[in-house]
Amino acid sequence: MEMNRNTEYWEKITAYFSGELNPKEMAAIEAWAEKTDNQLLLNEMRTKMKLVAESGNMHKSDTDLAWKTLLSKIQQEKIQKKSTFHLSMKTYAVAASLILLFGLSFVLLKIAQQSQSKMNTIQTLANQQTIELPDGTLVYLNQNSSLTYPSRFENRDVKLVGEAFFDVKADHTRPFVIETEKASIQVLGTSFNVKTINPKGDLEVFVEQGKVRVAELKRIENQLVLTKGDFASLEGNKLISKNMTDRNYLAWKTKTLIFSNTSLEEVVETLSKVYNVQIVLNEEKLRSLALTSTYDRIEVNALLEAICLTFNLEKTTDKQGRIVLYSRI
Questions:
Q1: Element (DSSP H or E) covering residue 167
Q2: Among candidate residues 88, 95, 120, 89, the one with its CA nearest the CA of residue 110
Q3: Which of 56, 66, 65, 55 is nearest to 95 (CA)?
Q4: N vs C: which end of the chain shows fewer Cβ within 10 Å?
C-alpha cells in the first residue's frame, strides 16, 4: 500500500488503536473502513499490532526506543517551527508502536498534520452571523450561540451550542454531522434548523428541505429520520416527532413574521425572541388584542410603531431597558 495513501488515515487509525474511543466512535471508524479500501489498512495494522504486542520484552524495549526517538524529533520540530503537538499519552504509545510498523517519517508527518488541524469557534452575543464553511455549507448562527469546526474540514463534523440554520452543501461521500450536548444530526445535503433549548442540552430540529437523522448520543438506537417539514424534539431521553405549528419558527433568520388573529401577548413574545429585545405589556387588557398582519424584514422599532398605530398604543423604554407598550390616554 502506498505510503502517501496511508498517511490520509492517520487520525482515524491512531485513535482507533489508542483505546480512548467510546463504542460509538469505534463503530463509526469500522463502518467508515468497510465503505472504502481503508479496511485493508485497518486489518493490516491490527495484525501487526497484535504481533508486536505478543513479542513481550522486545515490544517494550522497541517501543520505548521508538517513543524516545519520536519525542526527540517532536522537540526539534517545536524549536524549528515554534509549533505545539497535542496528543494524549495513549496516542503517543500507539504512535511509538506504529513507528515500528510503518516508519518514523510516516508518523511524524501525520503528527505534524494533526497539529495543524486547529478548531475554529464562532461565538455570537446580541448579533447574528452567517458563516461559510470550507465545503461551501452556509450556517446562519443565531444570537447567543456558538459553532465549532476544524480548519481542515475533511470529515464535516461540527459542534453547536444554541441555535443555527444549516444549508448543507451536498456531498454523498462525506455526511455532514452536527453534534450538540445530547444528540447528533447527520445529513447528506439539506437545509434545517437546530436549536438547543436549555442547559441540559435538550434540542429541537426542524427540516426545511431534504432528510436528516437525529440520534441521542448516549443511546444511538434512539433515533428518528426527518424529512421536509418534519419537526422533532429531544426532551430528557425522549425523542419525539411533532407537527410544526409555529409559522414564525424561522423568523429569527428570515425576519418574515406572519400573524393571523394572534394575541398581542404572543406577538410581543415572538418579537422579543426574533429581535433579542425585551418587550412588555403594562396592562392586562392589552394581552388579548388580536393582530393579523405580515411583516417582511422590518426593523423592530418601525414594526412596533406600526403595532402601536393599529391599537392606539404608546411605547417607551424603562430603566431596565425594556420596551413597554401601554394605552394612550
A1: strand 163-167
A2: 95
A3: 66
A4: C
State how far the Cα of 273 lies from the Cα of 246, in Å rounded to an integer: 13
**For residue 317, what are the CA distances in angstroms to 18, 143, 162, 269, 271?**
59, 22, 28, 17, 16
CB burial class (10 A; 0-12, 13-18, 19+) of residue 49? middle
Write out pLDDT tens, residues 52-84: 455 444 444 444 454 454 445 444 544 444 444
Q: What is the pLDDT of residues 178-237, one digit of tens each?
A: 999 999 999 877 899 999 987 777 899 999 999 999 998 888 888 999 999 999 999 888
Mean pLDDT of the region 245-261:
95
Name the grid cell of 142: 443565531
State the architecture of 119-242 in CATH terms.
Answer: Sandwich (2.60)
With b meaning 16 or more CB within 10 Å and e meaning fewer, what string describes 163-202? bbbbbbbeeeeeebbbebbbbbbbbbbbbbbbbbeeeeeb
Q: Find cell 403595532 and name the residue.
A: 307
CB 150 within 8 A of CB 119: yes
Alpha-carbon 318 to chain mean position: 38
Kindly report the average pLDDT of the chain as a whole number. 78
User: What residues are paired with 284 via a beta bridge?
Assistant: none
Q: What's the burial of 243, exposed, middle or buried (CB within 10 Å: 0-12/13-18/19+)?
A: exposed
What distance in Å separates the CA atoms of residue 73 and residue 214, rounded to the nearest whole number?
Answer: 43
Per-domain boundaries in the chain: 3-115, 119-242, 251-327
DSSP 201: -
- The CATH code belonging to domain 251-327 is 3.55.50.30
What's the pLDDT tens digit per position in 315-328? Answer: 999 999 999 999 98
C-alpha cell belonging to residue 289: 388584542
Q: What are phi and psi of 170, to 5 degrees?
A: -65, 130
**What global pTM score does this model have?**
0.64
- Long-range pairs for 153-161 at CB < 8 Å and ≥24 separation? 158/133, 160/194, 160/196, 161/196
